Amino acid sequence: MAQPGIHIAALVSYKIYPAKMGGQKGIALFYRYLGKRLPVILLSTKNNEAPDTPDVQLLPVLGNSKWRYINPFLFFKLKNFLKKNSISHLILEHPYYGWLGMLLKWFTPTKIIVHSHNIEALRFKSTGRWWWGILWNYEKWTHRNAHFSFFIQDDDRNYAIKKFRLDPVKCATITYGFEMDQAPSPEEKKEARALLCSRHSIPADVTILLFNGTLDYKPNRNALDIILTKINDLLLAEKSFKYRILICGNKLPAEYHDLSDYRSKNIIYAGFVDDITVYFKGADTFINPVTDGGGIKTKVVEALGYDLAVVSTASGAIGIPQAITGGKLELIADEDWAGFAEKTIRMNAGTSIPQAYFEHFYWGNIAAKAATLIAG
Questions:
Q1: Domain 186-352 sits in CATH 3.40.50.2000
Q2: Rounded distance, CA 133 to CA 110, Å?
Q3: Cα 286 from Cα 279, distance rounded (Å)
Q4: pTM of the full predicted structure?
């Protein structure tokens, strides 16, 4: 399905292979599916492993040092590369290499696309970084000078159009996606649940709640604190509710002591698991008390795709149209932890995620939209 004259390179400034965390998956899977439609070369750091798809070529042209973001010699290397390989479009993953993208725009015929995963400045503002305003102006400058901008969800696109004063015609929503085009079968879910019960000594009549994420990332760490100190206490108070909360994820800060103090309070720390899909398929409800961090929460997209019921804060489910979730997604106002616990207890996990969800979030459809915009 390659288009004559369309050759894409993407500048990815950090390790994405192997793709384990949400941000890594978002980039790796986007290019896996885009690469089936248009030729793609990823320009990234030297600490990557080989891509897990034959449709994407990776060249380790960036070093691993933090100084790679301000290396002026990259301009000459990439200018020669773009011309030699007749690259028609260069996609910048995040705005950080905006300075480099604009130099290449001015000195080559290559069109520059910025692929935004959040409004980055607002994400850093929400985590208390004092310099977020500097980044905001740089991010605005980068988008205003690009030929086109991809945003992860509609709120980000609308914000950028209004606050960065972007031309709406040059902006599109290219969401995070899901690899399967249909939900797992009841048999798959039953088998996964049996595995979780056996692995973690969970009684068969217990509701399995799940939370996962990189646990030293401030929004996830804050959410974990909410689970431990607020939501779980409210669940414990409902004596008739039988449940276990499975916490999955790496980089749990040492002061949590592997959550050993909470083992008697229905909380099980599973650590980093090689196959998180088993947990998505086998749990009953995903709880997402995240209130900051920006962007779309990849864990929620994946949980719903595996036909898992989700209880989330309103901020934690931005970018996911509730109308296409068939009642599988319940939204609670931020900070209403009593309401969050009540909905978790009463959540009906028996409905099924509708096919409309996959029409919106299936990676194949997302990549087709991006390819059409690029080729157009």
A1: yes
A2: 29
A3: 10
A4: 0.90
**pLDDT, tens only, 251-298:** 999 999 999 999 999 999 999 998 999 999 999 999 999 998 677 889
Task: Output the pLDDT for position 293.
Answer: 65
**What is the 3-class SS of the chain, one letter each residue?**
CCCCCCCEEEECCCCCCCCCCHHHHHHHHHHHHHCCCCCEEEEEECCCCCCCCCCEEEEEEECCCHHHHHCCHHHHHHHHHHHHCCCCEEEEECCCCHHHHHHHHHHCCCEEEEECCCCHHHHHHHCCCCCHHHHHHHHHHHHHHCCEEEECCHHHHHHHHHHCCCCHHHEEECCCCECCCCCCCHHHHHHHHHHHHHHHCCCCCCEEEEEECCCCCHHHHHHHHHHHHHHHHHHHHCCCCCEEEEEECCCCCHHHHHHHHHHHHCEEEEECCCCHHHHHHHCCEEEECCCCCCCCCHHHHHHHHCCCEEEEECHHHCCCCHHHCCCCEEEECCCCHHHHHHHHHHCCCCCCCCHHHHHHHEHHHHHHHHHHHHHC
| Cα diameter, the chain | 69
pLDDT tens track for 39-59: 999 999 999 999 989 999 999
In this structure, whether the domain defined by 8-178+360-375 belongs to CATH 2.30.42.10 is answered with no
- Delimiting residues of CATH 3.40.50.2000 domain(s) in the chain: 8-178+360-375, 186-352
